[in-house]
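Dear H.,

Thanks for agreeing to be a second pair of eyes. The structure we're designing against is below in token form, covering all 194 positions.
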């Protein structure tokens, strides 16, 4: 940050009185500019009918990770709840109509100042299509998931946890658990599917 968003005066990086970490501070108007992590919110849209159990994934049409597969997700907007953000992102990226379920995973990605949240979701119908940020939208059974072409470690971890819970549910009964996990490796996966 170079300039104050309140008065356009240059800012300096320093520890304000009573604080414990560097902040951008404007000497002109005394505004302290706090920078906080961003929330990335999405869903795990599932189609389950008879012997079919599939998850909806989107192929990214934008950077970062153009051409890689992801769960529908994106940055939360002001004036919406996390559940509303998950529904909106699923509609925007996959054109899918979902019934939102419980929060499934919370992934801290401290190195890029983000927290990723994924909700369980049920597809209401099979009417879906790529949005402007997606090249393709497709249903995948677990054995069909393009594991080496997933966009981010948060997507891989969420899907691994999801399918592990499915096994426990089939074997022991019960339901999906809530998972909290820290991603400590780089967000970029180095393999290239192209």
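And this is the sequence the design step returned. I haven't edited it by hand at all.
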């Amino acid at each position: 940050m170079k300039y104050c968003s309140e008065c356009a005066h240059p800012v300096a990086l320093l520890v304000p009185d009573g604080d414990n970490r560097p902040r951008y501070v404007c000497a002109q108007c005394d505004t302290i500019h706090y920078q906080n992590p961003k929330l990335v919110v999405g869903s795990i849209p599932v189609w389950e009918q008879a012997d079919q159990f599939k998850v909806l994934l989107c192929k990214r049409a934008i950077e970062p990770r153009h051409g890689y597969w992801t769960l529908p997700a994106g940055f939360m907007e002001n004036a919406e709840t996390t559940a509303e953000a998950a529904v909106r992102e699923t509609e925007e990226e996959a054109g899918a109509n979902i019934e939102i379920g419980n929060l499934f995973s919370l992934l801290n990605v401290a190195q890029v100042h983000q927290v990723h949240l994924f909700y369980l979701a049920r597809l209401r119908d099979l009417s879906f299509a790529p949005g402007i940020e997606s090249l393709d939208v497709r249903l995948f059974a677990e054995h069909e998931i393009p594991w080496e072409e997933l966009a981010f470690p948060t997507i891989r971890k969420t899907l691994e946890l999801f399918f592990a819970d499915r096994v426990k549910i089939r074997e022991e009964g019960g339901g999906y658990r809530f998972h909290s996990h820290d991603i400590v490796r780089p967000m970029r996966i180095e393999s290239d599917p192209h």
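Two observations from my side: The chain has two helices and eleven strands. Residues 1-35 form a domain with the Ubiquitin Ligase Nedd4; Chain: W; fold (CATH 2.20.70.10).

Warmly,
E.
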